[in-house]
Amino acid sequence: MTATRVLQPADLDAAVEILQAHGPEAALLAGGVTWMLRQARGEDVPSVLISLEGIDTLAGVVVHDDRLTIGAMTRLIDLERSSAVAAMAPGLAEMIAHVGSVRIRSQATIGGNLAAGVPRYDPPPMLMALDTRLRLLGPAGTRELALADWSPHDSRGSGVEILVAVEIPTLPPRAAVRYRSLDDVLGVDVVHAAAAVRIGLDGDGAISDGRLVVADALVGPRRCTPAEQGLIGRHPVAETAADVAALVAAGDAPGADRGLVAIATRRALVAAFADLVSQPGIASSGSR
Amino acid sequence: MTTEPTTAAPAPTTYEIVVDGRPSRVEGPAMRPLVVALRDDLDITGPKVPCGIGVCGACSVLLDGELVSGCLVPVAMAAGRHVTTVAGLTPDDGLSPLQAAFVAHGASQCGFCTPGQVVAATALLTHDPDPSPQDVTAWMAGNLCRCTGYVAIVEAILDAADGGRQGVGRPGG
Questions:
Q1: Is B16 buried (19+), middle (13-18) or exposed (0-12) by CB count in 10 A?
Q2: What pLDDT score was predicted for residue A286?
Q3: Contact check, Cβ <8 Å, B11/A7
Q4: What ipTM was reported for this prediction?
């Protein structure tokens, strides 16, 4: 067994200091799930892990007019139970409830999930579809950037940056997000394909905003721009979902499991369309 | 768990955990799975170690009241906290209402997964004393059983919840 030491800094500044002092031999410990899985598989675990548990400022959900701020150490089960998350986007709460089992969600944190950089994890595609931004803390202070522009390996490589919070913009009216994935039965994710969609409608009920992020076991979350463009101007009906899924099958990243990703895309679109037509003032468009 | 400055003192090799209400001490290293420490250091054999990757649920324990996989919790993260195993949910004079419901419904056959099932179901009924069948199925989805086919397990949990509603006592109470 790897003789990893776990250090417990008293606050964030101390965590940055310790991270800086130990350099590349050290990494951060959030909920611990990913490191324990890597250890169980016989993979390398850093000799020093800096636990962020107990730093109170890193946990919790704060509601702003234009966004939710979620502390990086907020456990997934707390997001699943959050009325603020459910109120802002039912699809986001549904996705969180889909992660692993209740045991995993009771231990895993949103920051740890993102920082793990594992392609098959569920939250990253959905959070990218929501244009989530990240707040990172390093020796030079705090910086913000889009989740889509962040590689956790960059922060880990620099050895000195800590993911502090996740900022999710409030979903506008006449919009919906949904996530669907296909996994093998035991959830050990040899097979995995996922799609997260964000759809917005204009006053006439046509799609004016489409964001489509897909992922599979081999290739991490990425936008599928041709398929996004194929959504614009269409109406939220089954035919649109099928056509856009075909665009994903034809145009997704090389090496990706395009067939399964296309199925997940169609299912996510159908679910998002159902959300939209159930909203007040949005009528079903029929087969257009 | 220790607080260690940049110039670090030696990391602890033992960790103090309250297990089933009793202050206990287990050996490190820090990333040793909690379930292994419970079984090998404390001879608490209710939680099992079949998969070791958080999939099967047979290692289920409560950590400060929350359901977790004992195989995925490093002992360092359990230090100073309360761990409850199936033994801690069992009254001295018999079975809890939930355990009795498992017996009544034949919800255990080989018994290997049963401690984890009981711990998981207890966590559910603590969180939601009045679950629907769908709630039970969703919550227990991470606890695998190769014998029963699950129907008897779900029925036992719903029965125990119904008993709680009728004032005959809470499971694990």
A1: middle
A2: 53
A3: yes
A4: 0.89
